[in-house]
Amino acid sequence: MLIIACLTLYSEHNASAQAVYPPNSIYDGAKSVPSLSRPGYLQPVIDPVFGAKINRISDDSMGLASAGYMQHHYSKDQPWNHDMTLIKLANTRVILDAKTYQIFKKPSGKGETRWSTVDPNIMFYTRGNQFRKWNVRSDADTLLHTFSEGNISIGSNEGNISMGDKSVVLNVDTLVIVYDIANDVVIAKKDLGPIDWATMSQSGNYVVSRPGSSSLGVVVYDLNLNLLRKIFDKGAHGDVGYDAAGNEVFVQMCPVQMSRLDTGQVTSLGINMCGHLSTRNYQRLGWASVTDGSSNGEVLAIKLDGSKTVERFAHGRTSAANYDAQAKGVFSPDGSKVMWNSDWGSGTVYAYVAEMPGNSGNNVPPAAPTDLKVTGISP
To answer: Where does the pLDDT of residue 377 fall: very low under 50, low under 70, confident under 90, or very high at 90 and above?
Structure first.
């Protein structure tokens, strides 16, 4: 029997009417990078090639301990909250007002954190062997579950909670745990051996993992952690999302390609590029952010339909000299803004946000559709 999931997700047609995106074009190779001085803190500039407004949103004056703290955590970790009014940086060592980029709060005692995809005030986080939720405005803090198995991680800190905040994949070293947040139930747990990362798919119907070596590929499990299929023979930087046709996919780099979770069918997206990739734009399905890992590579959106349709936001302008300086782009939930980290060729790594002029800073998510399909699931 097919399970149909009603998800809090949004198609590109349902994204906020006030959102402005770069023009669609067919990818035709890298563009030259003209000189552009590093923007001052909160002093926006216009990208000379693509026309996006670029704002540097972090600075030494924020009082963070290191350059690694003056950027978002990772491409697969959404820095914006659900209604795009707040931003977390530095593994939530600081939370910013997403309109002014001024400091809203400096939390402490939070482990790995993920924003709710339902409530803009809620953040889920780990503390030792506890899974908790925290209201960032009221400071109400709730213990959801204590795991006797040991200290937990959200898929080796690369996993995500399913849409609607229903379920999450946690791990204690090699022990993988599927946890139903909504009902406070452990669905399954199994020792899968070394893993690089594990995550719940956006529908909450699949567990996707890359074993400890990239040569072991990317694999898909059901919620009882029974192996369903290998979808890539070799794993690279990537993320789980939906393609333009509404199928759940894993999209990865080197080259840019996607594989359906239900069948393993692989589709080339027509760009041979390495770097980082994100599908955290859950209010605008069918797109991924792609960040060229080469020095001065681009930060762009690619449509997940094999057409090579892209939306070009900005050049990353980073040396990629070390891990902190590798540009790791991630969209806002509606896909109208992209954040990445850059040393601007040399020096300190800061966080930058690019968006098209005229884009609203106060987008409010629309009502969710209820007719999204999830294919290939049976009891």
So the answer is: very low
Global pTM value: 0.91
Residue owning tokens 């402005």: 20
Task: Work out the number of other CB atoms within 10 angstroms of the CB of residue 299.
Answer: 32
Structure-token pair, residue 200:
């719940």
pLDDT digits (tens, 9 = 90+) for 231-266: 999 999 999 999 999 999 999 999 999 999 999 999
- Reply yes or no on whether the pLDDT at 1 is more than 60: no
pLDDT band at 214 (very low <50, low <70, confident <90, very high): low
258 sits in which H/E element: strand 256-260
Whether residue 92 is contained in a domain is answered as: yes
Q: What is the CATH number of the domain that holds 113?
A: 2.130.10.10
64 within domain boundaries: yes
Which phi and psi angles does 116 have, rounded to 5°?
A: -65, 145
Contact 285, 305 (CB under 8 A): no
Give how many domains the chain has, as a whole number: 1
User: Could you write out the DSSP letters of every residue in 231-284?
Assistant: EESS--SEEEEE-TTS-EEEEETTTEEEEETTT--EEEEEE---EEEE---TTS
CA distances 260 to 229, 231, 256, 303, Å, are 11, 7, 14, 15
- Domain extent, residue 222, equals 12-355
